[in-house]
Design brief:
293 residues, alpha+beta, Ribosomal Protein S5, domain 2, 6-stranded mixed β-sheet, 4-stranded antiparallel β-sheet, 28% strand, globular, disordered N terminus, binds 4-diphosphocytidyl-2-C-methyl-D-erythritol 2-phosphate, binds adenosine-5'-diphosphate
């Protein structure tokens, strides 16, 4: 896997494009409570967002079309199934607008990686096109039709998710997370979400208890998708153990359905030392040194 490149809006903005960030999503904790009749799972999760991720740019055009560049462009089709185009079509259907757009996605996040790249791209498309086309719509309602974590990605701020993840509950003390140094590491295994949920053992290990300190709540919590993901890819367990042993790490865990793992730090220097050590100890891993939004 290639390493992350910094994506800046400047090159697109200079050419007259509107730009919208699509940051990485992290599940600081994720409790699976039950399997529902439709096959989906009832979860309780703390969503948080990084300051970096993909970048979406748009300008008016007669047609609706997507081009993809960036380090992970090769792994992704730009056809009608792409979540960016699905979001655009959903917004057109909801509003009746027939406007087009030329869209350019700079894909900096690995795909099927537990950090919601596709969901965040879809949310960015809704925000960006509603702005560019000047249409009013219930973006939350549209987001729900695109994926369980697209509503959280629409707001881009730490929040609690319940239900399938799409019922959002304000997170007391969320602002205390802002600016925390964050390191994301993906060992290079694609992890499709459905099979990981299907590997959950069906045992409810209890609720995610939130007070007014989200970091403390996350540390006391779990990611119930980690055991099934680790069964599919044992490298994840080694990576979490490695991250937890970094000096200054206050929380190390897998995000979402994996395989990306994260570590949170109190200090930037400790994060940067861990990022340097990744290059030494995990030379083939993708990494992103960033902070919480
Ligand atoms: C696990 C999480 C945690 O944030 O993230 P990722 O690992 O995908 O980033 C999300 O719940 C993923 O949300 P999202 O990626 O939008 O899921 P969807 O497209 O709606 O569903 C993909 C598949 O995951 C399973 N799924 C998803 C959500 C849920 N609450 N229960 C499920 O069982 C279903 O098998 C579904 O077919
Ligand atoms: N713009 C997009 N970015 C990433 N994946 C996308 C996109 N559009 C559609 N997909 C599909 O959605 C699936 C999940 O992608 P992604 O959001 O990266 O996973 P995760 O939520 O686990 O990080 C992938 O299998 C991919 O083929």
């Amino acid at each position: 896997m290639t390493r992350a490149h910094a994506t800046t809006p400047d090159n697109h903005a200079a050419a007259g494009w509107l730009v919208e960030p699509a940051p990485a999503k992290i599940n600081l904790a994720l409790h699976v409570r039950a399997r529902m009749a439709d096959g989906y799972h009832r979860i309780e999760t703390i969503f948080a967002f990084a300051r970096d991720g993909d970048m979406l740019a748009a300008r008016p055009d007669a047609d609706l079309q997507l081009a993809i560049d960036g380090p992970f462009a090769a792994g992704l089709d730009a056809g009608a199934d792409n979540l960016v185009l699905r979001a655009a079509e959903a917004l057109r259907a909801a509003t009746g607008i027939r406007a087009g757009a030329a869209l350019r996605l700079t894909k900096a996040l690995p795909i099927a990686a537990g950090i919601g790249g596709g969901s965040s791209d879809a949310a960015a498309a809704l925000r960006l096109l509603a702005r560019m086309w000047g249409v009013e719509a219930d973006l939350d309602a549209i987001a729900r039709t695109l994926g369980a974590d697209v509503p959280a990605c629409l707001h881009n701020r730490a929040v609690m998710g319940t239900g399938r993840g799409e019922e959002l509950v304000p997170l007391a003390g969320a602002e205390r997370l802002t600016g925390m140094p964050l390191l994301l590491v993906n060992p290079g295994v694609a992890m499709p979400t459905g099979p990981v949920f299907r590997g959950w053992d069906g045992q409810d290990r209890g609720p995610l208890t939130i007070g007014n300190d989200p970091l403390a709540a996350a540390r006391a919590g779990r990611n119930d998708l980690a055991p099934p993901a680790m069964a599919l890819a044992p490298v994840i367990a080694r990576l979490v153990g490695w991250l937890a042993a970094r000096p200054g790490a206050v929380l190390a865990r897998m995000s979402g359905s994996g395989a990306t793992c994260f570590a949170l730090f109190e200090q930037v220097d400790a994060r940067d030392a861990a990022a340097d050590a990744i290059a030494r100890d995990w030379p083939d891993a993708w990494r992103m040194a960033t902070s919480l939004a």
